[in-house]
Amino acid sequence: MSMGAEHQITAGFMPLFDSAVLVAAGELGFAAREGIELALHRETSWANIRDRIAIGHFHLAHMLGPMPLACNLGLTPLASETIVPFSLGLGGNCVTISNAVWAGMAAHGAEPDLDPARAGAALGALIRERAVAGYDPLRFAVVHPHSGHNYELRYWLAACDIDPERQIEIVIVPPPFMADALAAGRIDGYCVGEPWNSASVAAGTGHIVTVKAQIWRNSPEKVIGVRKAWADENPAALAALLRALHHSARWCQDPANHGELAAVMAQAGFLGLPPAVQMPILTGHLQLGGGADRTIDDFFLPFDKAANFPWKSHALWFYTQMVRWGHVAHTPENLAIARDCYRPDLYRSALKPLGVALPGANSKVEGALRVATAVGATGAGLVLGPDGFFDGQIFDPLEIDAYIAGQKSAHTND
Amino acid sequence: MVRTSLAVLVIDENRIRAAIIEAGLREAGHELVTVIHDVSGIARRIAEIEPDVIVIDLENPNRDMLENMFQLSRAVKRPIAMFVDRSDQASIEAAVDAGVSAYVVDGLRQERVKPILDMAVSRFNAFSRMARELEEVRGELESRKVIDRAKGILMKSRGLSEEAAYTLLRKTAMNQNRKIGDIAQSLVTAAGLLGPAEDE
To answer: Which domains occur in chain A, in start order?
Structure first.
């Protein structure tokens, strides 16, 4: 502990691989080089992270992308205003199902190719067959109601004509318990980040059927949520931290560093799992079960494709899904809260002195880029996308009313 | 349904701590106390028990699952909110510091619940203190054992008396500004590496 650091920052994280950029910033000296003494605290639930941010134990934390929105929209019991000046990466999640469900899906044409449309069609056929036979609905688990996992699972199912409110059941299970719950038959499938999908495949108890990167390519996942009161009073400390995270993210993306990163994350205080199980998320090469494997482009990006930029269009898409599934009412006030939560202005002003490529806009049309595209930006060479939704839909944040009205939802299915 | 005394559900994987909380609640006159260590099938249990107050430890990784369940009206008959919702900042901090959280049924007056939370907070703190003290005692016993083994090694290999062996260990610790237990541990490790198996 150096008493000489200019800024003391306390941060919470959950033991998931996508905390890597924050963990590496603390463990590998990126924070120290910006004059920050970064204290990292591992937590056991997102509720604890929320509570400790709210009472000021943590200045900031590794959070689920929609979580700060939920705090600011008053959807959680205890919350302080939370802002997002940095995103911790794109992608990284999978949908994993039991061997029994896989057998049923395979009988309806599923192939081990991760294609969301084909897998969804097969799952839909199985679900209808089970309903006719009088079986209980399949039970899927996600890590939190206000999570990318919940919203992308529901998006995928709904786009495949499966009603996630009525035709399946969705429950909450903590990430490290997913594989056990699946093996014990308490759930039939789940959507979670790595390494908890590969864990079921390695145990021979599950199959990965599709991945976040194919449901919505280059889509947002975890973020840095900052207690707004602290950010307002400590702009220099926050800017220094964002620069440290930027350098850390660049280091984490480089394949030359993956071995060392996996070794850091393997330590007992972080993930506490062998380095080998961290490799699928880093390489994008996944075992799917039954001997099949696939390498997925852009499976998880901690830095490339402007992965750290807190796009307002990402926050607004989460908002449209909160409205879709009845988590919040669509009102001008709520929309304004959602729009103000992610703070690209803070990201931009902190990184400007580094002369790195920065997007010129705060929002983009999501799903419009079919191929990787160089974009007009300050600094050199910024490439975005492809960012397509698997069903070909486009989310234009300027047409949010129309997008919300056009969604199949719990309410319009009646 | 009218019940004079509140039904309290304690969810804690730590059986000893749960027992301490339960005893405290009973001493305070709460008859309807249920303790659950394992959250599997908890929705059904909550439906049966119909608790007014739920006390849960913050280390429990199932808080997200429980909070989600409390918000779904299908799982529980009556909406359950987090106690801190309507509490003052000081008791929120005291509860989080102690490592405990409470959820209460909507509409229950704060003054009826606050004593329960206060009791849980103080018992959680007492338990942490006890666990810390136990850890210290365990550490002391452990280091005393190691010192005895180190003394034995010195007595055998250098022909010292027990007192001289101890003095040597203490002097070395002082010179190196380390704890005597650490010096003893280094010696035992080194002896283990260099010599044949050393028995006591």
So the answer is: 7-90+221-273+301-353 (3.40.190.10), 93-215 (3.40.190.10), 354-406 (no CATH)
